[in-house]
Amino acid sequence: MRLLVTGGAGFIGANFVHSTVRERPDVSVTVLDALTYAGSRESLAPVADDIRLVEGDLADEQLVERLVAESDAVAHFAAETHVDNALADPAPFLRSNVIGTFSVLEAVRRHGVRLHHVSTDEVYGDLPLGEDVRFTESTPYNPSSPYSATKASADLLVRAWVRSYGVRATISNCSNNYGPYQHIEKFIPRQITNILTGRRPKLYGAGANVRDWIHVEDHNSAVWRILDGGEIGRTYLIGADGERDNLSVLRMILQLMDRDPDDFDHVTDRAGHDLRYAIDSGALRDELGWAPKHTDFADGLGSTIAWYRDNEWWWAPLKERVEAGYAKRGQ
Ligand code: NAD
Ligand code: DAU
Q1: What is the enzyme's main class (predicted)?
Q2: Catalytic: 241?
Q3: Protein residues whose CB sits closer than 6 Å to any atom of ligand 2
Q4: Residue pLDDT, tens place only, 158-206
């Protein structure tokens, strides 16, 4: 199989490329990535000799058309992904997430190529705290942030291209990922690298907001399961029953790093901060037989901390700039 992976130099995409090279020698991988601030060649260094990396933008229609024409399938991960950045400057989110997905859809339509579109649970908005209710495939879309609104828009384009043009596409909406190679702007790696650089971790508001954590390897095994056996036109929700509030996650990180669990700062809360995400992944498990492997969160967090400790070369050059950006916003 010739597989085009968009966004393969970002967090989830790079992990996807690593596991594909490791586990699927029959797949030849081409990565298309604009290498924005969030993507890095270094994340693909361990597989550099096994793949082709094309630096380019989704909005470059001719380039996308050419690469899609050479492929049997596309795994579409590329997007602008950080909610705080979207609140500060939404324009790049419109370009990459909406126009970028349109460009991919037009190319797969013209060439009859299979598409898997990677999306997020944030398209469903948020859930109340403390109620036993979770997102399912039929939960109405209700995005809260400029980021989630652009991801929801992209999902709707994919659905329309399936119905109107018979494009062979599937969609997955996954919960919060953690693991190696995640950009240090995101919650878990930001706190780990704060501690490693002698800074105090930063918690938005009271830390009561709940996220449903899944290890990136489990997200990616689900994406492969859908590519292999998913029903065209279907949406699958991916989650690993990993609900935790932010304060508990932060305290666990502090504890695993031998710090006082109260050694952190409360900072300005995120505007419009979603309260709780929770995924019901029953359909994926029952119909496609998928199950997560990383079911012990403390264990997964411990190995993620070890990865950041051992790979300072990968993140240290970014740290000052990321923290200066947060400081400007009082976070
Ligand atoms: P990331 O920000 O780490 O990486 C995104 C990658 O896309 C980067 O390499 C970047 O250079 C590339 N990119 C951005 N705009 C581009 C463009 N216009 N053209 C080409 N490349 C471009 O993101 P991530 O966390 O790895 O997320 C990957 C996908 O998974 C996204 O679609 C995101 O919405 C989705 N998702 C993420 C999570 C999560 O917890 N991180 C959860 C569910 C779904
Ligand atoms: O649910 C899936 C989504 O998860 C993905 O679609 C997004 O691309 C991904 O970034 C993530 O979104 P979140 O906004 O949930 O992730 P983030 O890591 O930014 O924040 C997680 C929680 O931690 C959130 O409630 C805000 C809080 N937070 C975040 C940062 C960066 C803090 O308390 N302190 C921080 O420093």
Answers
A1: lyase
A2: no
A3: 81-83, 120-122, 175-176, 186-187, 190, 202-204, 209, 211, 246, 270, 277
A4: 999 999 999 999 999 999 999 999 999 999 999 999 999 999 999 999 9
